[in-house]
Amino acid sequence: MGIDLQELRGYIVDMYSDVALLPRGKFHFPTGRPLLELLGYAPELLDKIPIGAIESFAGVGYHFGLEPLKEGERVLDLGSGAGTDAFFAALHVGAAGSVIGVDMTDAMLEKAQENLELSSLSNVRFQKAYAESLPFDDESFDVVISNGVINLSPVKETVFAEIHRVLAPGGRLMFSDIVTGVELPDSIRDNCALWAECIGGAQESQRYLRLIEKANFTIEATSQNERYRFAQDSTLSAAEKFRVHSISILAHRN
Ligand SMILES: C[S@@+](CC[C@H](N)C(=O)[O-])C[C@H]1O[C@@H](n2cnc3c(N)ncnc32)[C@H](O)[C@@H]1O
Known about the structure:
By secondary structure, this protein is α/β, with parallel strands linked by helices. It has helices at 5-21, 32-39, 43-46, 51-55, 84-93, 106-118, 156-166, 186-189, 192-196, 205-214, 233-241; strands spanning 74-78, 98-103, 124-128, 141-147, 167-180, 203-204, 217-224, 245-253. It has one domain: 3-Layer(aba) Sandwich (Rossmann fold). Strands 1, 2, 3, 4, 5, 6, 7 and 8 form an 8-stranded mixed β-sheet that branches. The chain is globular.
């Protein structure tokens, strides 16, 4: 592993601060409402989410169809960005449930907070945290969701161990992420910019599923987000060469 965690975090924070502050900018990945509709989010539910959150959506898939959220569930959104998935989850779990979104990028958290204040939702909150060390008690959530985030961590085993720790027995992990069809060469893996674009840190899909199982989860379902495409030619060619693609995964905690 040739990547430096602190340097990588700098690249990630720069990249996603731009997505928060300049949502109409040009990125190597798609963003915003057109992407959400392409992935399968119901437009009538998106209409209930503040547009400031929607415009900075930078997820990669739609995992909510894998097992519907239930009223009253306690949800953690890992890498919640500007908050779209957290708001979407809050609409499903209702007033008896709760959603906490965590992210490491201040600009994203500030945007999520501003949009929360514009919404009528009282069952959501956002706080700063790293996926690798979650500031929550053991067994405090029923569901962990995440969208386009775990590929960005160079210590994915630690992230899955943390998710396992904070999930209650019988809880589930339901998330979307970028994976590859073949192992990436070191020249791509060691490139912080490609990593922040959700390519460099992507794992070969079978190896990724084994990593999740090793963290003591049972994988119940996977599906490909076939409509997800990187947005710029340079990224597209790397994506095609290494069969970089988006999947959604449902895994139960053992
Ligand atoms: C591709 S964006 C997706 C944001 C959001 N899930 C969405 O769907 O719009 C990745 C987000 O994960 C956050 N992130 C990346 N690595 C993280 C980590 N180790 N801990 C916490 N947040 C992280 C970034 O700051 C960024 O907001």
